[in-house]
Design a protein that fits this description.
- With 430 residues, the protein is α/β, with parallel strands linked by helices.
- The chain is 53% helix and 10% strand.
- A four-stranded parallel sheet has the order 2-1-3-4, with helices on both faces.
- Helix 10 packs across helix 16.
- The chain starts with 7 loop residues before the first helix and ends with a helix.
- Bound molecules: Double cubane cluster.
- Double cubane cluster binds next to helix 7, helix 9 and helix 18.
């Protein structure tokens, strides 16, 4: 059935979504996208792919997952949802399922959410509770299973409530790195693998796991290639487009997206050679670090770039933490490869770990490599662990002689005026 003839409203109804409320959400996000993304000047032509991703996020992409033939026949693969970088896509792909990142980047049904989580919970957690309770996220509704993780206290406890609303399996993530916790984490990922195999009825084999590792590595290599072009001045691609590229990595088809990112990287390499940029040469360059930005949380990058600066790199889960490390492709057996995956994921520098100095080192290294003029560190409101790490981060930036600003924000527009003034003053001072 052609794209035009397909009845998306019936698809959403079939997923038991609140279609009218969802119309309102799509309209609001569409307006936001137009005013933030489509007003950018000098974008690389290949970023048109991202416009397609944004347009199809709740329609065409969901159809690919749940009804690719367009005739209501059973979905070809199980859909596994997650909210965190510690859930390895390699394991899920190898068992014949598809992993998708779930909606958590906007306020939705906050009053409903507050019946299940405390009012002073971070917006990301309140967001996913609200999206589920309001039935407006087709990724949550189409997921056969959600994999939660014991990371921060807020998420850990929220999954107890979320699990009453949705089929949920929670993995335990260590908070310190020792030989013992490494072993515990390796075991935990075996428990996850067994659960996903049970869900799909498909055994993970050495061949399927090797192919899944290569698929994810190819995507990460493409993102590394694109990111390297941003060291140039003028930088060829905006922070906003780079952010959406990584956000898409949690939702889009992996092989197709990898091809599109490589095309963007090739175009950006050409732009660097030609001295063509998305912002003028000499525009102030910002390195972002902090809490992740789930779709459609684009507000801070939009603010920074509309103020005339450009975001040249991001140390966070919707940035370098997603793509900087690969899983070795040399493992011979399923066991060896699972250990390699566990080791790679244990190295993610999330603030749930203590100590977590690797994050400070990464931020300073990236700021130097990407020639950043300043660092903006941002925590979502009520996120104690990232708020806490901001002190060490400031000290590390100061020691390296890099101007630093810390921000606390949420998903509302209420602090927009004040935030804008602070961001503009920081950029001016650089
Ligand atoms: S690996 S950063 S995705 S846990 S903002 S919910 S930490 S209170 S999102 Fe995260 Fe995984 Fe870590 Fe990344 Fe809690 Fe903080 Fe909210 Fe957060």
């Amino acid at each position: 059935m052609s794209e035009q003839d397909y009845d998306y409203r019936s698809m959403w109804e079939g997923l038991d979504m609140d279609v009218e409320a969802h119309d309102g959400l799509l309209e609001a996000v569409g307006q936001m996208y137009s005013s933030m993304y489509l007003t950018q000047e000098n974008r690389p032509a290949s970023t048109a792919y991202l416009d397609g991703v944004a347009t199809n996020l709740h329609s065409g992409r969901i159809r690919e997952l749940v009804d690719p033939q367009g005739d209501g026949s059973p979905r070809p693969k199980k859909v596994i949802g997650s909210f965190c970088l510690y859930v390895p896509e390699e394991i899920i792909t190898a068992a014949g399922a598809v992993e998708v990142g779930l909606c958590a980047g906007a306020d939705w049904a906050p009053a409903e959410a507050e019946k299940h989580v405390p009012r002073n919970t971070c917006p990301l957690i309140k967001g996913f509770m609200g999206f589920k309770l309001g039935r407006v996220c087709p990724y949550i509704e189409s997921a056969d299973l959600v994999v939660g993780e014991n990371t921060c206290d807020g998420k850990k406890k929220a999954y107890e409530q979320f699990g009453k609303l949705k089929n949920t399996f929670v993995i335990d993530v260590p908070h310190v790195r020792t030989d013992e916790t490494r072993q515990m984490w390796r075991n935990e990922l075996r428990r996850l693998a067994a659960r996903i195999e049970q869900e799909t009825g498909q055994k993970i084999t050495a061949e399927s796991l090797r192919a899944a590792i290569k698929l994810a590595n190819d995507k990460r290599r493409a993102l590394q290639r694109l990111s390297a072009t941003r060291a140039a001045d003028p930088t060829p691609i905006s922070g906003l487009d780079s952010l959406l590229t990584v956000q898409a990595a949690f939702m889009d088809d992996s092989a197709r997206l990898t091809g599109a990112i490589n095309e963007m990287a090739a175009e950006c390499e050409g732009r660097v050679k030609d001295g063509e940029g998305v912002a003028p040469k000499g525009a102030k360059r910002i390195l972002y670090t902090g809490t992740p930005m789930a779709v459609p949380n684009w507000k801070l990058f939009n603010m920074i770039e509309k103020a005339g600066a450009v975001v040249v790199g991001e140390e966070y889960c919707t940035g370098s933490r997603y793509y900087k490390d690969l899983v070795p492709e040399t493992g011979a057996t399923v066991d060896e490869m699972l250990d390699d995956i566990a080791d790679r994921y244990l190295n993610i520098q999330c603030a749930i770990f203590t100590p977590n100095h690797g994050r400070e080192e990464d931020v300073v290294r990236m700021a130097k490599e990407l020639h950043a003029d300043g660092i903006i560190d941002c925590a979502l409101q009520f996120c104690t662990i990232y708020e806490q790490e901001s002190f060490g981060m400031e000290e590390a930036a100061e020691k390296a002689g890099i101007p630093f600003m810390h921000i606390t924000t949420d998903y509302s527009g209420q602090d927009e005026g004040q935030l804008k003034t602070r961001v503009e003053a920081f950029i001016e001072m650089l």
